[in-house]
Amino acid sequence: MKTTKNNTYLRRMANVLLPLCLFVLFPVSAHAQCGIENTAFKSGEFLGYDLYFNWKFVWVKVGTASMSTIQSRYNGQTAYRSSLITRGNSQLDNMFVMRDTLLCYTDEDLSPLYYRKGAREGKRYYVDELWYTYPKGNCHLKKHRIDADGEEHWKEDEYKDCIYDMMSIFLRARNFDATKIKVGDKIPLPISDAKRITNSWLKYNGTTNLKMKNSDDKYRCLVFSFIEREDGKNNELIRFYITDDKNHLPVRLDMFLSFGSAKAYLTGFKGLRNPMESKIE
Q1: DSSP secondary-structure letter at 8?
Q2: For residue 127, is pLDDT > 90?
Q3: Cα 173 to Cα 273: distance, rounded to the nearest angstrom
Q4: 3-class DSSP state for residue 20?
Q5: Dist. CA 169–CA 202, nearest whole Å
Q6: Phi-psi category of residue 59: left, alpha or beta, with phi > 0 → left and psi -120 to 50 → alpha
Q7: Torsion-angle region of 47 (φ positive above 0: left; ψ -120 to 50: alpha; else: beta)
Q8: pLDDT, tens only, 223-260
Q9: d(CA 6, CA 217)
Q10: Model-level pTM?
Q11: How far is CA 111 from the centre of its chain?
């Protein structure tokens, strides 16, 4: 049965599921020196996830997500092209349609160049786009949004600090040394879409051993909480479990929503650059 409450609930879930690439452990730079040496992944990597929703105290599979990264070209230069696709299954479609595709280009040192999100959520379809340039050491963003009613919005902003999007931050974050972070540390997250920059941060919660759903696989993981401040309150939106090795793969995400909770589990991967040394035999 389709209700306003269910649609609101599932729209919130869709908005939180998409940032499954948002685990990050980075200091904000003082200037727009936004690159970093890539040692975590290579062209041809593919990650797959199953998405679950807590429906009346039962965990129900509601869709899948996949992310791929390949070497490509952008405006004549060598670049990484990464895409994230989130799809609800037929069971979810009966209540709420979710069809989202995210795309980004970064240069070889992972400085962001372009970002696009096309999202169909319920009866809404909207598009966000960002173009990055770096004049005089700053980070300049050209922003474009197409609302669900078809209205277009253009805006340009320039920042002294590096600004990222939901895709490029994932690629950059995987290349940081987590041994330099202490339990309780809070790291600001300057992440933008075509509307605004979020007032959010990441908190490091320590390590744990995690058993996967529907398999006997176990991983040694780092645990982080993604927190957003809205209306004067701090809200934990996502808890990330990422492999404690050079790959830094998110293997589970717990998502806390207004009306319940959801989870994403890593189900498969290929083309990794480094051995999965965090796996517990």
Answers
A1: H
A2: yes
A3: 15
A4: helix
A5: 12
A6: beta
A7: beta
A8: 988 888 888 888 888 898 989 999 999 899 898 866 56
A9: 34
A10: 0.81
A11: 16
